[in-house]
């Protein structure tokens, strides 16, 4: 006989509560992607203010992405152990505090250190958001709820460049961090009142060795992907990082097979839907962040747009995602996840290929409608795919599933930038060593050649995600969330 669904979950599904829970989680969740996208826009101002090198200032956004990703699995496991509400609210409160510290930094190294702490806090919020939303809604509304939840991510990513441009032109760069404070305080108090308490499970132990090896693996892999181009892919420091990643990954797999309460029981990946839908999510964000990384270079170097106009044009993709994602999620509740996920990634691939056709004489509208196609594809894909992942695991393990899905998103962002940058710099070496204002006519032609191949590579990644989406979709309609049978034993330390 199956164990009952936790009381906190059933109470959360009352019609008068579940939508308020979704809104509270969305308010908190918007800040992570907002902070990830807004800082890049004001990075030149930060570099100028502290009179530092671009190579040092680049660690401000880099360290944030790295620290978000490296402990996100651990946070998901903690959510399953002590309750998703605690992890989410502690992370939210810490994010507000570290935002104040970042905005008050007196040196570039102080800012980098506080950004690392801010990333740790953001990882706590991101790791359990999917779990809270999934637990609050019945399976028949899961896709719709996750589609609406995706709006917070799309708004954060879309608002970031434009808001960053406005701040850079009218205020100090410090306000990109201070803007988090009123939003975060409101979200903490609202979340404390409305998000269910959850249940602290007795007899739970944290797999510290598994957490440590996962941390080393992700840190080494992402640092290699992020800095390999600057250091040289085959340089001794890069090779050392790659070797560390392989060794720690092997140790992690060995520990998880032996641990009585593993942080991540590998049997989860025996489920085809779970395994391939997560892989599809990774590939989707790789393709999406190829666009995020490449397009501002085109707008600045070729079209000579200022920061604010770049932000407005770049908003076309996340705004399209914002409008499509809720409808896609709702439709997936009726027809299943596979057709929508497949069509979405095909559309994203088409958008990336169309971006590769941009010329010197293109204008803002030429770029915007191509970005919108790619953004519509992402919106069509993400909600059904997230629903497939979260619907394929037992209720007791929503936290770790949410953490894995969030990890796929953040690792995909880093790898997407690394792959797109490697292709661009290999095809157009001049891009890596010159400032935007230094490009001559021949340099621009070389840059466009590299840009085309980088976009085509992104289209190939999106095409691969379409294929894995087909493989993942074993059923037309996603199964209901099912509790864990006691006789089956714990999947993730349950």
CATH homologous superfamily assignment of the largest domain: MFS general substrate transporter like domains
> Which stretches are poorly predicted, pLDDT < 50 over at least 5 residues?
1-13, 474-494
Q: Taking Cα atoms only, what radius of gyration do you get, to the nearest Å?
A: 22 Å
Strand content: under 5%
CATH architecture of the largest domain: Up-down Bundle
CATH class of the largest domain: Mainly Alpha
Please, what is the average pLDDT? 81
**What does the overall shape look like?**
globular
Q: Helix amount, in percent?
A: over 70%
* Count of the domains: 2
- What is the string of helix and strand elements? HHHHHHHHHHHHHHHHHHHHH
How large is the count of helical segments? 21
Q: Report the end-to-end length measured between terminal Cα atoms.
A: 17 Å
Broad structural category: mainly alpha
The largest sheet, given as strand count, sense and whether it forms a barrel, is:
none
CATH fold-level topology of the largest domain: Growth Hormone, Chain: A
Number of strands: 0
Question: Quick gist of this model?
Answer:
With 494 residues, the chain is mainly alpha-helical. The protein is 77% helix and 0% strand.
Structural write-up:
- The protein is an all-alpha fold and 494 residues long.
- The chain folds into two domains: 7-207 and 259-488, MFS general substrate transporter like domains (Growth Hormone, Chain: A, Up-down Bundle), CATH 1.20.1250; 208-258.
- Helix 3 (31-50) packs antiparallel against helix 5 (59-70), helix 7 (84-103) runs antiparallel to helix 8 (108-136) and helix 9 (142-170) packs antiparallel against helix 16 (316-335).
- It starts with 6 loop residues before the first helix and ends in a 22-residue tail after the last helix.
- The longest helix has 32 residues, at 441-472.
- It has helices at residues 7-12, 15-29, 31-50, 54-57, 59-70, 72-82, 84-103, 108-136, 142-170, 175-178, 180-194, 208-231, 236-258, 272-301, 307-314, 316-335, 338-355, 364-390, 398-427, 430-433, 441-472.
């Amino acid at each position: 006989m199956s164990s009952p669904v936790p009381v906190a979950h059933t109470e959360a599904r009352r019609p008068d509560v579940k939508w308020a829970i979704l809104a509270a989680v969305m308010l908190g969740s918007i800040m992570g992607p907002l902070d990830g996208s807004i800082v890049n826009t004001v990075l030149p101002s930060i570099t100028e203010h502290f009179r530092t090198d671009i190579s040092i200032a680049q660690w401000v956004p880099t360290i944030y992405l790295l620290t978000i990703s490296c402990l996100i699995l651990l946070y998901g496991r903690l959510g399953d152990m002590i309750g998703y509400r605690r992890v989410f609210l502690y992370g939210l409160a810490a994010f507000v505090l570290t935002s104040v510290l970042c905005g008050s930094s007196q040196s570039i190294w102080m800012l980098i250190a506080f950004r690392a702490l801010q990333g740790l806090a953001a990882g706590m919020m991101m790791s359990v958001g999917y779990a809270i939303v999934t637990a609050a809604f019945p399976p028949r509304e899961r896709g719709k709820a996750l589609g609406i939840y995706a709006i917070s991510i799309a708004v954060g990513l879309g608002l970031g460049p434009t808001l960053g441009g406005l701040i850079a032109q009218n205020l100090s760069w410090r306000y990109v961090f201070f803007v988090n404070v009123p939003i975060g305080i409101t979200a903490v108090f609202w979340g404390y009142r409305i998000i269910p308490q959850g249940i602290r499970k007795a007899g739970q132990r944290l797999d510290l060795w598994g957490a440590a090896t996962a941390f080393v693996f992700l840190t080494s892999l992402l640092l290699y992907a992020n800095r390999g181009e600057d250091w040289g892919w085959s340089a001794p420091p890069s090779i050392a990082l790659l070797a560390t990643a392989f060794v720690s990954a092997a140790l992690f797999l060995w520990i998880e097979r032996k641990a009585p309460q593993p942080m991540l029981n590998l049997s989860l990946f025996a489920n085809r839907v779970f395994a391939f839908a997560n892989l599809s999510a990774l590939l989707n964000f790789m393709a999406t962040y190829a666009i995020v990384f490449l397009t501002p270079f085109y707008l600045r170097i070729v079209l000579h747009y200022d920061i604010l106009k770049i932000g407005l044009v770049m908003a076309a993709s996340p705004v399209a995602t914002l409008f499509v994602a809720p409808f896609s999620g709702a439709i997936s509740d009726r027809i299943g996840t596979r057709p929508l996920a497949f069509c979405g990634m095909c559309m994203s691939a088409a958008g990336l290929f169309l971006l590769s056709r941009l010329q010197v004489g293109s204008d803002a509208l030429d770029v915007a409608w191509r970005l919108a196609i790619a953004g519509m594809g992402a919106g069509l894909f993400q909600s059904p795919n997230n629903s497939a992942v979260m619907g394929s695991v037992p209720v007791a393990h929503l936290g770790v599933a949410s953490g894995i899905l969030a990890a796929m998103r953040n690792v995909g962002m880093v790898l997407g930038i690394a792959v797109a940058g490697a292709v661009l710099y290999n095809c157009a070496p001049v891009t890596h060593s010159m400032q935007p204002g230094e490009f001559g006519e021949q340099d621009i032609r070389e840059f466009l050649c590299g840009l085309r191949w980088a976009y085509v590579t992104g289209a190939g990644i999106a095409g691969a995600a379409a294929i894995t989406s087909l493989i993942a979709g074993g059923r037309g309609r996603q199964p209901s969330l099912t509790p864990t049978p006691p006789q089956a034993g714990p999947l993730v330390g349950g």
